[in-house]
Write a structure and sequence with these properties.
Blueprint: E1 4-6, E2 9-11, E3 17-21, E4 28-33, H1 37-54, H2 59-75, H3 77-88, H4 92-115, E5 120-121, E6 128-136, E7 139-143, H5 151-162, E8 166-170, H6 177-186, E9 194-196, H7 201-210, E10 216-220, H8 223-234, E11 239-243, E12 248-252, H9 258-270, E13 280-286, H10 287-303, H11 322-337, E14 341-344, E15 361-364, H12 371-374, E16 381-387, H13 390-397, E17 405-409, H14 413-422, E18 427-430, H15 455-460, E19 463-471, H16 483-486
Parallel strand pairs: 7-8, 7-10, 8-9, 10-11, 12-13, 12-17, 13-16, 15-16, 17-18
Antiparallel strand pairs: 1-2, 3-4, 5-6, 6-19, 14-15
Helix pairs in contact: 1-7, 2-4, 3-4, 3-6, 4-5, 9-10
Length: 489
């Protein structure tokens, strides 16, 4: 059984065993500790103690440490990708890429963190100097989801460390193994700078949120979970960093290259079995090409291979668990009852005796008010809705409580820029869905959250700004007391 990583070493816990299941085979692949409130408290104490030294480490030394983490990640790429495939189900090639993206994030924050401390400001009077300094919050609790367990960890941990914070990581109970394997990667850091506590969100996660020793809660999760975290932190006015749900629109204009957009749409909808927060969840297609687009998408979807992520021929892996599969299927069934039609897929795969495999699904006659469209469907479903023109597409794209990302395929810059300006979304992709850039901020609007990851904005999420006012000449100011003299001027 795998134990917690606290204070730079593996620590046994009194917690019970927590089974980790391979979603492709339903086999138990390992056990980890079901962490306790005490485990969370020990991790916070270790992080608090380490913070007293880590915050003062020079930027160049922090940068070297983050670069070493990146190098170690690349040195363990195959091992980590295999673990993520076994515990999470994504195809091995996707997880191999995820390890590289994770390493790249640590490299990026090593560089921008070493030189970023504040800014110089113009003074208001002579012989004065004004500047800002950016200071760490202290102990960051990073609560990580299961769909991209290392990448989304790095988007929090790398900038948090670069800013001078220490961290307690709570991985998802579904995918803790690859995160625990990072203990070897983090071992070169001073003890307590990074700690890992496994267990359930309502136990360990809640304990970290409520602990008086945590200064910032960084969560990627559902809107409902984000609301609970925000409510808990409000009592202490504790800083929250919330990346929540998504329901991204994908607009296909009449001038789109159908061969290109067919592949792009399917990849955006089915990547990681549709379990991507920025995955395309609702497709708005111009009437003029809707029939041709739909036919092409159905044919291409039927050509994709569903299977175990360790099979190099697999395109789409399983859902993370049975609950997730059943939730997706209930949404599809409900939409059918309300008039939608399934053109391909639409059920749990019967090819496999075991595993949580859901067929990639294309649906038409979908209406905007359906739950399939209005809420986040975390599965390989591609619902197509016809629109008259770009204004109609923008109107429907904005009919959502979410605002994470949005996509458009067109070479008409007037359509593209009009949609970009009017659609409420934190990221807008034109002719290339889902691509991230370490230097570009990532985050959403409305109920998707209020924070940003990546870029310099992502670093600032983990720092507080202090304004420093310095007068290098001591003198009596004419506007001080007594006012009787000041008013004579």
């Amino acid at each position: 059984m795998k134990h917690q990583w606290i204070g730079g070493r593996e620590v046994q816990s009194k917690g019970q065993a927590l089974e980790v299941i391979n979603p492709a085979t339903e086999d138990i692949i390992d056990e980890v500790t079901r962490g306790t409130i005490d485990d969370a408290g020990h991790a916070v104490s270790a992080a608090r103690q380490a913070f007293q030294k880590w915050r003062w480490i020079p930027g160049a030394e922090k940068a070297q440490a983050l670069h070493r983490i990146a190098s170690n990640l690349r040195g363990h790429q195959k091992e980590l990708a295999t673990l993520m495939t076994l515990e999470g189900g994504k195809p091995f090639c996707e997880n191999r890429d995820e390890v590289e993206w994770t390493a790249s994030c640590f490299d990026y924050y090593a560089e921008i963190g070493r030189n970023s401390r504040g800014t110089s400001l113009p003074p208001v009077f002579e012989h004065q100097v004004n500047f800002t300094i950016k200071e760490p919050y202290g102990v960051v609790a990073a609560i990580i989801p299961w769909n991209y367990p290392l990448l989304l960890l790095s988007w929090k941990v790398a900038p948090a460390l670069a800013a001078g914070n220490t961290v307690v990581i709570k991985p998802s109970e579904e995918t803790p193994l690859a995160t625990l394997a990072l203990a070897e990667v983090f071992a070169e850091l001073p003890p307590g700078v990074v700690n890992i506590v496994t267990g359930f969100g309502e136990e360990v996660g809640e304990a970290l949120v409520r602990h008086k020793g945590t200064d910032l809660i960084a969560l990627t999760g559902s809107v409902e979970t984000g609301k609970r975290v925000a409510q808990s932190c409000a009592a202490e006015i504790k800083k929250t960093h919330l990346e929540l749900g998504g329901n991204d629109p994908f607009i296909v204009c009449s001038d789109a290259d159908l061969e290109v957009v067919t592949r792009a749409a399917c990849w955006a909808a089915y990547l990681n079995a549709g379990q991507v927060c920025t995955g395309a969840k609702r497709f708005y297609v111009f009437d003029a090409i809707a029939d041709d687009f739909t036919d092409r998408v159905v044919r291409f979807t039927r050509s994709l291979k569903l299977g175990d992520g360790m099979d190099p021929n697999t395109d789409i892996g399983p859902a993370i668990n049975l609950t997730q599969l059943q939730d997706v299927h209930s949404r599809v069934e409900e939409a059918v009852r309300d008039g939608a039609r399934i053109l391909t897929g639409g059920s749990r795969s019967t090819i496999f005796k075991k595993g949580f495999f859901y067929e990639p699904t294309v649906m038409v006659d979908v209406r905007q008010e359906m739950r399939l469209v209005q809420t986040e469907t975390f599965g390989p479903v591609l619902p197509i809705m016809r629109v008259r023109d770009i204004d109609h597409a923008i109107e429907l794209a904005n009919d959502s409580t979410y605002g994470l990302g949005a996509n458009i395929y067109t070479n008409n810059m007037e359509w593209a820029m009009k949609a970009m300006e009017r659609i409420t979304a934190g990221t807008f992709w034109i002719n290339d869905p889902l691509t991230d850039n370490d230097a570009g901020p990532f985050g959403g609007m409305r109920q998707t959250g209020h924070s940003r990851e990546l870029g310099e904005e992502g670093l600032d999420e983990f720092r507080e700004t202090k304004h420093v006012h310095l007068d290098y000449k001591q003198e009596i100011k004419p506007y001080w007391y007594p006012y009787s003299e000041y008013n004579k001027r």
